[in-house]
Amino acid sequence: MTILYTAAVTAKGGREGRVKSADGMLDIALSLPKSMGGPGGAGSNPEQLFAAGYSACFESALALVARRRKLILNDMSLTAHVSLNKGDDGQFDLAVELHGVFPGIARPDAETLMQEAHQVCPYSRATRGNIQVKLMVD
Q1: What is the pLDDT along the chain (138 residues), one digit of tens a residue?
Q2: CB–CB of 81/99 below 8 Å?
Q3: Domains of the chain
Q4: pTM recorded for the entire structure
């Protein structure tokens, strides 16, 4: 295996702290959402950051599989919904819904693209069997 890139991000203060990348390109305050008993506010949270990474990576995977099929994806978008869930056992888990919008692409073709991208996306591969991931064509 050849390492292509390594990101280094440091968190201080947990969910109500700050995250900063080693190169300084990412420097974000975190705040606990009101729905989780926090003050809310201007900060982001780990679920938003995970959703940002997953949606960007999955959209790139969609573009890859579309190119392989010689399809052009005009104005396609991918939205990741990342939920933090608490089970009956008190343990916390993540769940993801990936919503793709494919203007000009027939639904069956869009669904096939989503399935194929799910096989090649590094985030999908990393989470497979660990968290629930639903693929949706909107």
Answers
A1: 999 999 999 999 999 999 999 999 999 999 999 999 988 888 999 999 999 999 999 999 999 999 999 998 989 999 999 999 999 999 999 999 999 999 999 999 999 999 999 999 999 999 999 999 999 999
A2: yes
A3: 1-44 (2.20.25.10), 46-137 (3.30.300.20)
A4: 0.93
